[in-house]
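Could you help me review a protein record that somebody else here produced? Here is the record exactly as it was handed to me:
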Amino acid sequence: MIFFDTHYHHKEGVDFAAEIAVFRAEMAANDKLCMITLGGSLTESIVAQKVANSAENVWFCAGVHPHCAAEFLSQGGDFDELENDPKCCAVGEIGLDYFYDFSDEESQKKVFAYFLERALAKNMPAVIHVRDKDDSVKAYEDAYDLLSVFAAKGGRFELHSYAGNIEFLEKFSNLGAYFSVNGMVTFKKADNIRMNLQKMPLDRLLIETDSPYLAPVPHRGKENRPVLVQFVAQKAADELQMSLADFCELTAKNAEKFFNIEIL
């Protein structure tokens, strides 16, 4: 089986080869672990690039997370070399985060729009982060406005770690969105995530860890790792009443199609 973690953040100093070794020790001999590591700043994107170029079946995305939007506007950064790397498979992680407001909303929207235009210019998909505060849906509304324009121009995008409501899931789905689920699908009180999963189009469904965050049960509370995507896959497969093998085949094929890559 192919377990494809489509979203993780590599920590500098972590032995990447050791992570693969752990996977080999824990899984069957014919299983594969594929990964996409993402940057949320120029510095993080360079780290992601190095990791992706160190092994097969590992790719990276380059972008500026909304937390870093204000800093990017003041300091800038050249992403051309990163985006031209054959291992770069998407622009991201980009988007809007009104939960923490580490960057003001206007800065976030400017940077988000800027990188969506880069994705169009490079003919690359975009990996999107959207998070709102409390019961607000303003981040989803603003993201939908920008992504509607992006999609109308032929842009392709994925809402990673989707935790919005069903209404916006349907609206984004109508724009052609892909969706990914992570360890939250295993959390006892995350009924909304499992309800969303039932509404996600199967031909546009992906899985991820978002490590080092959101470790799935039975590892909740510990540092997350790409190898733990197996628990996300098993829970999601169970919820959809699919075999693990069929689910893994489906999500791996979806990842190949969306990111325009080929698993070796």
